[in-house]
Each structure stands twice: as structure tokens, then as C-alpha cells.
Amino acid sequence: MYTSLTNRRSFIKKMAALSAMTAAATMFPGIMFAEEQELKLPKGGNLEWKKGPCRFCGVGCGILVGIENGKAVAVKGDPNSSVNKGLLCVKGYHQIMCTQASDRLTHALVKKNGKYVKTPLNEALDLVANKMKATIKNHGKDAVAMYTSGQSTIPEGYVASKFMKGAIGTNNLDCNARLCMASAVTGFLTTFGADEPMGCYEDIEHADYFITWGNNMAEMHPVLFSRMLEQKNRRGAKIIDFATRTTRSSTASNKSILFEPQTDLAVANAICYEIIKNGWVNKSFVDNHIKFQKGLTNIGYGLEDKFKFEDKATVIDFNSYKKFLEDYTPEKVAKYSKVSVKDIKYLASIYGDPNKKVVSYWCMGMNQHTRGTWINNLVYNIHLLTGKISQPGNGPFSLTGQPSACGTAREVGTFTHKLPKGVVMKEENRRLAAKIWKVPYENIPSKPTYHATEMFRAVDRGDIKFIWIQATNPLVSLPKTSRYRPGMKKDSCFVVVSDVFPTPTSDVADVILPASWHIEKSGLYGNSERRTQHWDKMIDGPGETTADAWMFIEVAKRMGYGKLFPYSKENHVEEIYKEYSQFHKGAKHEMAPIEVLKKESGVIWPYVNGKSTNWRFNSKYDPACNNGKDFHFYGNEDGKAIIWQRPYEPAPEIPDAKYPFWLNTGRVIEHWHTGSMTRRIPVLHKAMPHSYVEFHPDDAEKLGIRNGEKVKVSSRRGSCILPASINERGLPTKGQVFVPFFDENMMINDVTLDAFCPISKEPDYKKCAVKVEKA
């Protein structure tokens, strides 16, 4: 259906907006979702439109919410947002509908004698504070933990970090961005010494080629994909889909290239081999701006509890790197990657052509990878060898999955190893945090503790006695959930969950706190292109729903830390943001003032002298460059980026005679993450009411499985029963099955493996071995 697109409106504007209007007709009679110039209001309609960001993915689309009589009744794309230019995807158009859900959490619930009892919020917060204090007194500060979210606002993430690391004095804080973006973080840090992309979405208007690495953008980032399609149709830009299964992105691309799971590592090295062999290296760029290193190999997969790993870098030279690549000729790699020699050479020729601009895009396919840091490094290698980086239309770009995974996890520092600036391991960062937070320097621990997977292993072991989970649903999203569900139910751990809706995670909570939906509070998000977006509270939430940041503050006060959190309830978002902005003074990461953010539909950092820095590390665009050269990778002390020698290594678990299929998991366009919000939107739920398992037709025929038949997918960890899908949404290669993970009634993450990248600690949801049989 995508190949006939003539412009960027055809896919999402027609399909999504029309379905949105149909749904709106039943819920808000007479209100239509449309761009401003097309809006038709009912007679007597008097809507006030307020700006904000979309609640869902990390693209960061700007929205306008129509408010009437104190209620949100319509949504449209913000035409002033350079991200989406008035366009929204199907989820964006429908987002406010889920706030009307009948099972909305409106009051605190406390478990008493096995049953939840409606409790005044103040009383519930008293209980949370008392439990935290008692746990710290009896078991030590590292017995309490907090697990937050890339859906949290920047102020919420900042307060969580200050509360746990500055006030209590434990690094037991991590977030669900560990499950999706940690490999992007460590990839940037190890190559450039600084996190987050150097480019921006404007690259789409300049690039000649878009190469998507394991990324179904048509469904995962449809607004950006529509912008790419516009360039394809308007000026002949080409989209190359490089993936392990055929998707809607594949059919809309100029070319689709399929590879065997895990072998993207080898193909990336083969591309570099070809670039060097054919003399396509940008020698001047490499000589002036690049150094070469290799790290450890055979580094494990993190499967055992309390797994520890620290990489060790060794300096090498170009000739050593060139010799290493001799094991990755196209002819050798083609044999096990299932990518033809011709296609490997074709990819290399695109990157190697000095007259073609190339942007590489990726998301979970590369990041949820047991060698996630490595594959990020290897794609950077390609751009660094050719000098195609930090320029309009030239650059590697890691997309994010959550609305503030960048702003709240990566910038604010809700990872165990991070602070609002830098890492806890560096004394200068701890001293800066202590100064701004007004806490003793010794309060802030110098060593990270638990990343997400290990945090819930610690709950299961009984090492963590108290955990507060905010705006996320780990008992659906964690890998190998079959282990953690029983552990979360144990009496040895007191569980607090703050959320908007009940979830399988809140089902095991001792206290459930009613959180505000994003437009029911003020806040800020940070999207994939370093764009910070502010919004003011638009409507009141039901019952005693409260912003998470304020619930954190109230608990901190009850625990005796009131002096550290002197914010007012009415204005705490602005007060917190101004305090947080002190961490990023200077041209490398200056944040826009709150007054600017209130006026604009998002501003990219660094914001220097009243102007956003769209391309970092290039002295033509970036005022932080000060080495007198065209490029300055100032995240590293010597100003040079690193090309890493990283080998191909197989996945920790591969298909065998007993478990002959690869399992790959992911998302669909209708639903977002664990579905706790989108499954409460009637039109989206009707469009995709349940999960399924995709088969290649030849595998289905061999197994005697027909479309819609119930099938049992089993691994060494668990099983899941789903209906079969053959020749419908996507097409796996032979020997592979694909399952979306949005459906809490079909728990595919019971089946997945909890192996992770030893450097980033991000789990690999894309590759494990399963068997399939009729249910």
C-alpha cells in the first residue's frame, strides 16, 4: 500500500486522520481532527488550542490540544513544529481518548489483607515515606530502589535523581530507557565522548540516501518516515531498508536487503573493508580528526546474576585496523550473513561516493542487541571513514522510542551511572551535583549499582527490599518476565507503582499512586534530535491524580529532606528546570531559557546566543568548536573521534534441533510499548485487538499451520500462545518468527532471553531460540 504514495499526507494523514475522525464522531460529536486550515468546528464551538508534545514515541511531534469547558476534546498536529509540520500518526491523533478510560486510576490504593483499599493520597504518601525510612534503617540505603521512565518529564527525572542520589545517597536509580536506548548512549560516549546525535531531522531534507539499520520506521516512526517518502517522491532521494524481516518500511523503500540475525556486525565491517579497498576513505578527515582503538572481545552476555564487565581500550593504527578487516571481505561475510556480495558492495558504494549525502537511521534493531554498543560503533566507523558526519544530510542518527528518553534519561541522568551532568564515577561531576543540590559531596556514591535487568534480579534475590516504579510497566516489558513476576510478589519487597492506568505491574504493588496524564500537568520532554519541548497544564485530572514530580517531593519532605526540595506546587516545573539548567551552562550543552521554551514549539540544544545548534562538532555550525579545525569532537580530550575495531560474535542463543526458530519481538503502528495506553483507545484496540506470531509461508506450510490458528511459542524460559499470521503485516525470513509485545494477555516476554550488551547493559529482545507447535 505504501508504494503508491505520492506525498507525505497519503499514508498517515489520510489513513490515520480519517480513522481518528471516525472515532471522534462518536466521542466528541462534531469535532474533527484536521490541520488548522481544514478545521470545522460545530456551531457554537469555542475551542482553545494549547501546544505541547505528543505523549508517545521519541520523534517528539508537536500537538495542539483543543480544550472546551475544561476538557480536552480534540488533537491536531502543530503546524509550527518543525518536527511534524502539522502531521500526526494514528496514535498521536487519538492520544487524549485514553484519558477517558473507565478504569483510570483516580485515587491511591493500598493493599490491606490482600485487597486494594481506596486511600487518601496524603495517607498513601505517608506510608511510602515510612516504608522507605524503615527499609533504609533496617537494611541500608542500597536496599531501596527507584525505576523510572523515558515517559517521565524532565522535572520528574531530575527530582528522582536528586532524591535518590543526592538526598538518600544511593545510585539505585535506573529507568526503562535502559531497555531501549542504553546502547545508543554507550555508542555515542565510546566513539565521541559525548552523548546524543550530532545532527537533526532537517538532515532529511538534505540527504540523498537513507539507510535504515533494522528499523521499521513506517510503523515505529511514521511521521519521520513520511518526511523521507516526501523527499523520495519530490527529489529522488533513496531509502535502503536493511533488516531481518520484510516490513511495511521494506515495501516503501527503493531496496530491501535482508540479513541473518546478529550478522549486522559483520556486514558493517565488510562495508568498511570495501571503503578502504576502493580508496573511498576521506583521508584528510581521518588524518585530522580520527584515532583508532580496539576493545576486549569474548566479553560475555550478562546472563549470570551480578555480572560485571569493564571494557579496556588499546590504541591501534590504521594499518592494524585495515588488517583486521581482512576477515570481513564481502565474499567471506556473504556466506553467513545471507547478504549477497553484490549488496554489500552496493551499500559500501553509497557510503563511499563523495558526491552522495547519507543518513543512517536505527532504533531497537541495533540497540536491543547483545553487542549493541559495538554495532553502534561500527556504523559510526562507516561515517567517520568517509567523513560523512556533522553536516546537513550526512550523519548517523539514533532514533529513540519514548517521548523523553533523551531529555529525562540521557540528559537528566536517571541511569544508575549518570548524574544531570556526566557520570557518577567522575569526582568533578559529583562535586558539581553536590554544589547545585546543596548536599554533602560524600552523599553521592561514586559507583553505579543496578541497571534495569540487574535491579529486578536483585528484587528477585531479596537484595532490594523497596522499589518505586513510575510511569512504566516492567512486568510486561522486561526480558524473561517469567522470572520477575514471582519475585515481585514476594513479601520480601515493598512495591510502589505510580501510573495512569492499572497494569500487570500495578497488580503486584503494595501501594498504587494515581499519576497525572501529561496534559494534566506542566512539563518538559526531550526528543531524539535534542529538542526540548515545554507545555503548560491544560486540564485538571480526575480525583486525586498528581504529577509524579510532586509525589516524589512530598515523600522526600516526609523523610526529612524538605530543605533540598524548596519548590512550590504551582510553579515547581519552572523552578526545577531553572535549577537543572545550571548543570549545562556553556556552549556544549546550553539549555534554552524557560521563557523561550514557552513560546516555541521546541528548541534544540545547545542553545547559544539565542540560536539552536543543529549540527554539533562542525565549526561551521557549532560555537563549541574551538580547536581551529573544521571539526572538533570535543567530547574527547584530544578532540578526535574514535574508530573502533569490533569483531562479529554470534548471539548467545541460536536455533538448534530442539528450538529451531529465531524469535524477534517489536511493535506495530497501532500500539505503543506495552499497550497500557493505546489498548484503551477504542479505535486502535479494534484495529489491532491482540498480538500474533508471524511466519514465513514455507515454515507455516511445513508445520501445517493456517492463518489465525492458535500456536504455542516456547523457549527454555517460558511459552506463549498466539494466533498465527501468514502473509499479513510482515514477512519474516525462513526460520524466524516475529511477535509484537503490546498485548499483556499474550506475554511474549516470558519467552525472551535476558542476555544484554555487557557495555550498555541493554537486553536483546531480537534474538533467542524458540520452538513452535500447534496449541
TrEMBL record:
Leader peptide range in chain numbering: 1-34
PANTHER family in UniProt: PERIPLASMIC NITRATE REDUCTASE, RESPIRATORY NITRATE REDUCTASE
EC number(s) per entry: 1.9.6.1
Residues that coordinate or bind Mo-bis(molybdopterin guanine dinucleotide): 91, 151, 176, 180, 262-264, 364, 368, 473, 498-499, 521, 548, 665-674, 749, 766
Pfam family name, one: Molydop_binding
Keywords, sorted A to Z: 4Fe-4S, Electron transport, Iron, Iron-sulfur, Metal-binding, Molybdenum, Nitrate assimilation, Oxidoreductase, Periplasm, Signal, Transport
Residues that coordinate or bind substrate: 741
Family: Belongs to the prokaryotic molybdopterin-containing oxidoreductase family. NasA/NapA/NarB subfamily.
Major localisation: secreted
Reported modifications of this chain: Predicted to be exported by the Tat system. The position of the signal peptide cleavage has not been experimentally proven.
InterPro entries with a match to the protein in the record: Asp_de-COase-like_dom_sf, MoPterin_dinucl-bd_dom, Mopterin_OxRdtase, Mopterin_OxRdtase_4Fe-4S_dom, Periplasm_NO3_reductase_lsu, Prok_molybdopt-oxidoreductase, TAT_signal
Lineage: Bacteria, Pseudomonadati, Bacteroidota, Flavobacteriia, Flavobacteriales
4Fe-4S Mo/W bis-MGD-type domain span: 47-103
Record text on subunit structure and interactions: Component of the nitrate reductase NapAB complex composed of NapA and NapB.
Enzyme class: oxidoreductase
This protein's name: Nitrate reductase
Function: Catalytic subunit of the nitrate reductase complex NapAB. Receives electrons from NapB and catalyzes the reduction of nitrate to nitrite.
Cofactor note: Binds 1 molybdenum-bis(molybdopterin guanine dinucleotide) (Mo-bis-MGD) cofactor per subunit.
Cofactor section: Mo-bis(molybdopterin guanine dinucleotide); [4Fe-4S] cluster
